[in-house]
Write a sequence for this structure.
């Protein structure tokens, strides 16, 4: 079995996160992110589900996920996945889109899965520069060229039809976000949204692509990431984000992120120590 490599690096200058998952065979359950994801398959094959559509991804494929896009993937064939990706916060994307097009707005992309050699030529060196901590402005050039090309080739207006019970579903989402640290139940969410349990489950899943409980768990994981990046211990992060116990938190985090909470926290601690070392020189 090939050795697994799971690495994450945050670039302060570009304000984005780069990561690599190599030798991975584990499935990732249906979930979403609060940021944009631009990914590149180095090797391996995977079955991908995104926004309730099915894909088969393979070497050379580029993946585009908007904030809130529900997606899941599982191993296809025997070759483990080697995947590089960028997580780009909405605020960072706003600035990038404005710099690339002169228009300040969050872009929408027409495709989830693309094969584009030009984009691949931007992605590979940019990822390498970020992972190796390059301080040259060349990496910013590559990033702007990447985003500009993506918008020019695959951009589309943000114009989706309103989902069934859209107002009620947003009320449910807001309630979950406000109470994710609490032990909430389906009755409370339904009461706040003004829907029956069956109506909520049907409309919520149709609108968001995931169940209310999976939405809650994703919110908790995203908030836990922020705490771990600040140096908070996994035990305290679990308590602050509403997980019932440390084991439950570790299992969910590892399943969603591909790294244990402790390893994820260590990555940012090492970066902080490196920065302090540079400042002392």
């Amino acid at each position: 079995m090939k050795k697994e490599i799971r690495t994450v690096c945050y670039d302060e200058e570009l304000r984005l996160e780069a990561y690599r998952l190599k030798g991975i065979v584990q499935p990732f359950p249906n979930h979403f992110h609060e940021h944009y994801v631009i990914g590149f398959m180095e090797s391996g094959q995977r079955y991908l589900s995104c926004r309730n559509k099915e894909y088969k991804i393979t070497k050379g494929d580029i993946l585009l996920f908007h904030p809130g896009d529900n997606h899941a993937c599982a191993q296809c064939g025997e070759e483990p996945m080697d995947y590089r990706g960028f997580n780009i916060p909405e605020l960072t994307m706003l600035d990038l889109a404005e710099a690339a097009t002169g228009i300040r707005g969050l872009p929408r992309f027409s495709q989830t899965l693309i094969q584009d050699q030009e984009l691949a030529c931007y992605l590979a060196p940019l990822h390498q520069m970020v992972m190796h901590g390059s301080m040259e402005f060349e990496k910013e050039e590559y990033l702007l060229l990447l985003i500009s090309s993506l918008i020019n080739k695959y951009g589309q207006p943000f114009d989706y039809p309103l989902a069934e019970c859209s107002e009620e579903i947003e009320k449910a989402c807001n309630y979950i976000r406000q109470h994710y640290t609490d032990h909430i139940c389906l009755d409370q969410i339904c009461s706040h949204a003004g829907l029956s349990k069956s109506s909520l489950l049907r409309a919520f899943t149709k609108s968001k692509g995931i169940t209310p409980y999976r939405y809650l768990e994703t919110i908790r994981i995203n908030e836990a990431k922020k705490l771990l990046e600040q140096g908070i211990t996994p035990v305290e992060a679990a308590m602050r984000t509403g997980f019932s116990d440390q084991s439950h938190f570790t299992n969910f985090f590892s399943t969603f992120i591909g790294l244990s909470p402790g390893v994820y926290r260590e990555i940012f601690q090492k970066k902080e120590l490196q920065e302090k070392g540079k400042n002392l020189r």
